[in-house]
TrEMBL record:
Main location group: membrane
A Pfam short name: LPG_synthase_TM
Mode of membrane association: Multi-pass membrane protein
Protein name: Membrane protein
Lineage: Bacteria, Pseudomonadati, Spirochaetota, Spirochaetia, Leptospirales
InterPro entries: L-PG_synthase/AglD (IPR022791)
Organism per entry: Leptospira ryugenii
Length: 324
């Protein structure tokens, strides 16, 4: 509850600052310029983006969840993240994996953690490449990239330690839990999952999921951004799209209200300012992008959730009544 209140407070504050400093009449520029035909293409681009995203989840779960359920859970997750606080859609994805693949929650959580690391790594790489090729690689513009890189390095150090130094880590954790008289909890609930997670980090298990992260961002999310610019007649090239995508992704990483409202807008505006564009233009783009994604993702989530519940209901085995 406290986390939700904090996130909502950050979003409200960000929205207050935005609409206090920007002229609402900036939206007049949209009159007669919206190409509604692009809305259908945005629906399709979102469905396309879910394909590599779902394949990555399918391989992260070692094919124990069907691709269909991986796809459905991805659509539901994104849609619910638009309306639930603290990225509650991810919780639904965990529950679907637990129910349909008979996986334990710690197992799914560890794979979700790896997924987030892959996304963050890709986002940082995209940001660095876009800034360098757009001539924005000055030190003052790279603060967010440096901070993200430091966090990534710390995470990779932990993963390498789990991969190569599992035995001493298990001993340390065992003794630590023994000191607080929770040794049985560690042995029964955590140790086996730690061993399983370490095993997953070996060999080529991570290769396919890591490679699928590339088209997810460069050919999935980027296309949705580009189609939105076409819909509202804002001209930006592909490198600029990548920069805006980087800024938007880092913005929603900040604790905020559902769907990152407010902080997403502020991040996109910062991206437009970096490109030497008008802040008002950035506000219009951020608002339209957020609204369209809200409509598209929540609509798709409802459709796929209904389909999933129907299929799940039909898949429940019927038992014969012995009294009949």
């Amino acid at each position: 509850m406290k986390k939700w209140i904090l996130g909502a407070g950050i979003s409200v504050f960000a929205l207050f600052i935005l609409f206090k400093n920007f002229d609402i009449h900036e939206f007049d520029r949209l009159k007669g310029k919206i190409e509604w035909s692009y809305l259908f293409l945005i629906f399709l681009s979102n469905l396309w983006a879910f394909i590599p995203f779902s394949l990555r989840w399918y391989y992260l779960l070692d094919k124990k969840l069907s691709f269909y359920n991986a796809f459905v859970s991805a659509v539901i997750c994104f849609g619910m993240n638009m309306v639930l606080p603290a990225r509650g859609g991810d919780v639904l994805r965990i529950l679907i994996a637990k129910r349909d693949a008979n996986l334990t929650v710690p197992n799914v959580l560890s794979k979700l953690f790896l997924e987030k690391i892959m996304d963050l790594t890709m986002v940082v790489i995209i940001g660095v490449i876009a800034m360098i090729y757009l001539g924005l690689g000055e030190e003052k513009n790279l603060g967010l990239v440096f901070l993200s890189s430091i966090i990534l390095i710390g995470i990779f150090v932990v993963l390498i330690a789990v991969r190569y130094f599992l035995s001493p880590i298990r001993r340390i954790l065992g003794k630590t839990f023994a000191l607080i008289k929770q040794e049985h909890f560690y042995q029964d609930k955590l140790d086996s999952h730690l061993v399983e997670f370490s095993a997953f980090l070996r060999g080529t298990y991570l290769l396919k999921p890591a490679l699928l992260t590339i088209p997810t961002w460069l050919l999935g999310y980027a296309i949705s951004y580009w189609l939105t610019t076409k819909m509202i007649s804002i001209e930006v090239n592909y490198l600029e799209i990548l920069l805006l995508m980087f800024m938007g992704a880092m913005g929603v990483a900040v604790p905020s209200a559902p769907s990152g409202i407010g902080v997403f807008h502020a991040s996109i505006i910062s991206g437009f300012l970096l490109l030497g564009r008008e802040a008002g233009e950035g506000l219009v783009f951020a608002t339209v992008t957020h609204l369209i994604q809200f409509v598209v993702l929540t609509s798709l989530a409802v459709i796929f959730y209904l389909a999933w519940t129907i299929v799940a209901k039909d898949s429940i085995p019927k038992t014969n009544d012995p009294n009949q």
